[in-house]
Amino acid sequence: MPSRKPLAILFDLDGPLADSLELILGAFRHTFFTHLGAVPSDTAWIAGMGTPLITQLRSLVADEALIEPMTATYRSWQNEHHDELLREFEGVRETLSLLHDRGHHMALVTSKATDAAKRALHVMGIGALLDHVVGFDSTTTHKPDAEPVLHALALLHREATEAIFVGDSPHDIAAGTAAGVFTVAALWGPFSRQTLEAARPSRLIADIRDLPPLIQALTAAALAPSHT
């Protein structure tokens, strides 16, 4: 019977693993009120989640001179409140532990800076379960471009057909699709099913604990003999 090594698994951070919406929106509201005295809708900020902070700011701020100080304010507020407001979604630690024990190599592909992402993993107690962290500062282009996903695959020494990418935003799905990996849309993040379905992921799941059985099914299908 043919065999193959366990699939590599790539994860976005905010949404699939970290319940960080309160932290993100708090930093967003504080930053815009501090610098502009007015705050756009939460929906406007959520739409850009999954892309780098500077990209989100430029989508809503016309004055380029404000981007650098607003970035500093955002990061300062988030740094101050990070450990208090960051939480893991239910089932994350047990699911990643199970996948790790089954021999799956895992990496994070996030638009956060690498140090900030590692801090979040430490707070959640799952840093040791992931082999690599690909952050904003790891590549020259960012999601929805394929480069961060391809960089993670290179670090794991895997081909695109040997990996899946779990993300909660259309930008994650676009990056994974462009890289040629199987994409899994996480429905427990801030994006609606309709928005994620429009991004055309390979599969949607409603709970991170649905991931191990999905991987088992994918592996079984790959190992099944073909009949002509």
Beta-strand share of residues: 5-15%
What's the β-strand tally?
8
CATH topology name of the largest domain, in short, is Rossmann fold
Count of discrete domains? 2
SSE order, as H and E? EEHHHHEHEHEHEHEHEH
What is the C-level CATH assignment of the largest domain? Alpha Beta
Distance between the termini: 17 Å
CATH level-two architecture of the largest domain = 3-Layer(aba) Sandwich
Number of helices: 10
User: Helix/strand/pairing class, anyone?
Assistant: alpha/beta
Helical proportion, percent range: 40-55%
Q: Shape from CA axes?
A: globular
Unreliable stretches, pLDDT < 50, 5 or more residues? none
Order of strands side by side in the largest beta sheet? 5-4-1-6-7-8
Fourth-tier CATH superfamily name of the largest domain: HAD superfamily/HAD-like
Q: Biggest sheet, in brief? A: 6 strands, parallel
> Any idea what the radius of gyration is?
18 Å
Mean of residue pLDDT?
A: 94
